[in-house]
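CO-FOLDING WORKSHEET

Operator: S.A.
Ligand of interest: zinc ion
Run index: 167
Mode: holo prediction, single chain
Checklist:
[x] sequence pasted
[x] SMILES validated
[ ] output reviewed
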Amino acid sequence: MFIGHLPAGYILTKTLQKKLGTSKYLFFGLLGSVIADIDILYFYLIDNRQNLHHGYWIHIPFYWMMITLVTILFFWILKKKDYIIASIIFFSNIFLHLFLDTIVGKVEWLYPLTDKGYYLFDVPAVYDFWVWNFVFHWTFLFEVGLVVWAVVLFVKSKTESSTNKTL
Ligand SMILES: [Zn+2]
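OUTPUT RECEIVED:
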């Protein structure tokens, strides 16, 4: 997934905010929706393109499950309700990212049982530049749909807040 992560993160965070009764932590949600892809930088800059990007720990659900459990347990013991809400928003977006990556990329959902990568649709390598393989594949319509949905939601929430102000 290329352009869909941030809009998807926006949609999920807005939904969670409503459910959890808060208007805060949008930043944490958006950060969680894209942070797993910092391994792309690592892939290009440090690792000299040695490992497949989804094979780094930051794209492996098992590690995030551990981090999520420890973090929420920690804040629960400290009785920090606000931190728990922020964590739920952040980590939900992490898992949303991994789920969206599963559509056309490989994600090792069952690691450490197996390091097999799972995906829903195979994108054939047709173009020289690998990005075009994904952009011109029909699954890219998912991403376009997410962008449109997020924009509609954003405009709606802006007009709602401005009508609230005038009332
Ligand atoms: Zn990713």
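REVIEW:
The CA atoms of residues 26 and 85 lie 11 Å apart.
Helices lie at 5-20, 26-34, 38-46, 61-77, 81-104, 130-135, 140-166.
[x] output reviewed
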